[in-house]
Amino acid sequence: MMPSLLAILPIIIPLTAAAIALLLRRNFRLQAAWAFGAMLTAFGASAYLLWTVWSTGRPVVYQMGRWPAPFGISITADLLSATMAVMVQLVFVFGFIYALGAKDKAVHHSTFYPLFLCLVTGLTGGMLTGDVFNLFVMVELIVISGTVLTAMSDDRYGPEAAYKYFLISTVASFCLLFGVGCLYMSYGTLNMADLAARIAADQTPALLPAAIVFLAVTFMIKSAVVPFHFWQPDFHTASPTPVSAMLSSVVVKIGVYGFLRLTTLLMPHADWLRTLLIALGIVGIVFGGLGAAGTHNAKRMFAYSTLAQIGFIHVGVGWGTPLSLTAAIVFTFNHALIKSTLLMLSGYLASRAPVKTASFGVLRGTGKYAPLAGVLFFVGGMALAGIPPTNGFISKLTLFQSGIQAAQSGSVNGTLTYWVPLLLLGLSSIITLVYVFRALMKIWWEPFKPDVPVGKVKSSGDSLLAPSLMIATCIALGVWAQPLLQLSQDTSEWIRQPQAYVQAVLGERTGWLK
Amino acid sequence: MEIIKALSIGALFGIGLYQLLRRNVIRSAIGLVIISNAVNLFLLSIGAYDGVVEAYAKAVGQRSDALPQALILTAIVISLGGFAFVLALLYVIAARYRTGDSDEVKGLSH
User: Which of A143, A208, A271, A368 has its CA 20 to 30 A from that of A264?
Assistant: First the structure.
């Protein structure tokens, strides 16, 4: 097998499998088994891809249809893309395990698995592609499959949430398309590597700032940065549990990935963009934390908490020092695992509750009947707040370390850029503890006295296999953090050298373009 | 010619945004369609600038670049699927909430 073909396998396997799964719609068990098998295969492929990229030290590039680099679509797996793809597919493997044991009606619908596979295709494709228009296509794939998956939810407000999401996300997609158009008009290319080379050579085109602003707006809506977040809590609350666990953990990461690329590859000198990211990240941290502390629904609480956690990542990206980029990548990876676990646990409690909802009014005291979920929820909450020995501790430690290091290096505006954010980061970690404990107390400590006489707690609910496995992974990544840290460190080194990326995609043809 | 194109793109954007922000859910969907057409027209115009040197060919003359047209085709197909679905979704919402006013569609706000 051509080694370059490896770059496209993580995309093509779930996409083909989705089409075939649709043909298997009459036999649900076969369809579920097929989809899960395909997901495992895709994860194997992306893990092998990451291993290849990491061990050889060179990006794997696949030119679609053998078209030479700037003309065709280059699927480019550098270390950042491969790491992100592995993160997405790892979380999705757990999502599939949860879906297989879930009792939702939506999950047993014959279009659930094909759409779920489309969602993972869109995410992996968006992260592996090296072509800005292809990125738009993949983002649309995410939007449409996410909308349909939420609209078919058991929650009666599913269509409302899906409509809100579709409206805002489609506007974001059009912003992306407009930005792509501006870039094409200015530089006559859609290839990210080619664009990076041309932007570095010439920053005069009048539409370049417009393009960057449109791309930034897109990624902000996608990652639910605060002034653009209004769709997110509704959307993540109403979708079926396996889907909401994916949405709140990995689907928002497409925006984070976009910013990592934008600030390192396309516009490495756009300081205003970094400052904006730090400012909006801080607002997001405070707003998300306070929002989470005031909600009445466990799923909604974690959706708000995602706003805060994404804020942490954006501050890391905004600082832009080697260590803070490392921290942002570690944080991205760990947050994906932690947040999906906690949402799965909320969904598990909802499936056990007398009425299927994650609202605290119904869940109050039901935890007595779910002791294992309580232990997992406690560990997951500790991970979210960043208490050792979990992976959340490692990510917060790295982020704080990077901030302090950068502040001590004596840069201009050190107080405003580093110390103020650090102080707020510390405060918001305390808020995280507050809302996690508030949920723990409401669900596990208070006596079981529902507001309305709604009946008994169900004796069985969704399977707890996936959250248990994920908590085990979280603790493993907290105790043995070295590999992930090393990987993120190497990734941050890679993405600070965009010329290596450009060289890998364009090869010797770079001279030919002049 | 350029000025007409630019003005019509701007007008479409304006109308689309205005409709998108209306309270009626059907109007907001129509707003999306109009914005998508504005973006498509913009893409068309970037490939058909008379007299400007083309992307790679550097050919003299007034041929237009075909790539933006391929982009539009893809964008149209994608938005067609999305809008077909969202209209069905709006039908469900209208039937369930008995209203087309987006201020009344607020089951999730508490």
Answer: A143
